[in-house]
Each structure stands twice: as C-alpha cells, then as structure tokens.
Write a structure and sequence with these properties.
Blueprint lengths: L2 E4 L9 H10 L5 E6 L11 H7 L7 E6 L7 H7 L3 E5 L6 H11 L2 E6 L17 E5 L14 H15 L4 E5 L6 H8 L3 E4 L1 H4 L6 H10 L1
Parallel strand pairs: 1-8, 2-3, 3-4, 4-5, 5-6, 6-7, 7-8
The structure holds D-xylitol-5-phosphate and zinc ion.
Amino acid sequence: MRIIAPSILSADFSKLKEEVQNVEIAGGDWIHYDVMDGHFVPNLTFGSGVLAAIRPHTQLPIDAHLMVECPEKMIHSFAKAGANYITVHVESTPHIFRAIQMIKDTGAKAGVSLNPGTPFSAIEELLPLVDLVLIMTVNPGFGGQTFIDTMTAKIRKVAQAKRKNDYHYLIQVDGGINEETITLCANAGAEVFVAGSYVFSTKNKTVSQQIQSLKEV
Ligand code: DX5
Ligand code: ZN
C-alpha cells in the first residue's frame, strides 16, 4: 500500500483551492497540511482558518502536521476546521500523552512525529495509542531539503514494533521524498509518503505525472 500525501507547503498559496482540487484529480490520496509557528521551527505558514477555507473543496483526508510549540492550544481548532489526522511532535510538549488523548477525544485520528535527532524510544510508550507515526526524514521547517538516509533504520524499528505487537498505526515519512527515496522508505516499511517540492515545484512535469511516478516506482 502506498498512500501519497502531497504537501501544499510547496503549492501556490495564491490559489490553494485550485491546488487541492488539482491534487485530488491527479490521484493524490491525502492533503498534507504543514503548520509552522516560527518558534518550534524557523518558519511560519498557515493555521486552522486556512484549513477551514480549503476543506469544502476536496473530499480527500487532510492531514495536519503541527510543527508548533504548545500544540494542545490548537488541537480543537484544527479538529473543528475539519482535519482528519492531527499530528503533533513528541519534542513539542512535555505532555505528549495528553495531547494525543485530546486529539482522539475530538474524533480526529492522532499522529505523533519525531525529528531526525529524536530516537525511536521517545515514542515507544505511545505506539498502542496512535493512528499514525510520522518519521521526519529532514529537519522540519522547509520544503526542498535533502533526504537523510540514515532515517531508514528508524522506519524499520517503527515497522518492526507494529508487526510484533499488531499495532494499527500507519507509518508516514516526510521530507526529501522523490522517486528514489520513496523506494528506500517503502522497503523499510513506510506506508504514507509526504511529498512537497517533488510534486509541485517541477518545471516540465504536471502534478499528476509526479504523483503517478511516486505510485509506480
Ligand atoms: C517540512 C515539512 C514537509 C515539507 C516536505 O518541514 O514537514 O511536509 O513540505 O517538503 P519536501 O517534500 O519538499 O521535502
Ligand atoms: Zn510535513
């Protein structure tokens, strides 16, 4: 199973409605929505208001990746705006267990993410609870960075724990995904693939061609 989640961080912000509609027509499976607060990461993007504005224009699940400090403060507004998955970083709060529980209480699916420098052991206690584990394959904050290939060892650990314990979470990777790195991640056990610049920032190929090439490799 390969779920492709184009990240609209690399889309044209002046026409997000058309961009999400285009992703759906082009065969994308989810919309990945990167929320940055300028504190947890050195960049600022969009909040729950913009998510609410695009929500009526696509049937696809929207996956909100919160790269923010104090994510607990935003969980309810993102759920209300219509996010299907809400993912928080284990590094972003001292009370990650409570944050995950808060997400689940809204009825949204709950994801936990870890930065490249954070070991697998930091999320072990959460694995029975979460619906998604997001392994960052770049340092969060920007699109268009180079894939860190040592992250495949972490993907394998997350996949092994899933198999061994029969956990239900999906394994997602984010950062530097292209037609080559997707294979490395898929072989290690990843199932959901976020891709930003590969899908949107190409000169000669369409969004549809890029999505299909990720599915076919
Ligand atoms: C990075 C974001 C990513 C970003 C990926 O902090 O979380 O979702 O959009 O962009 P690419 O695919 O260009 O590395
Ligand atoms: Zn992301």
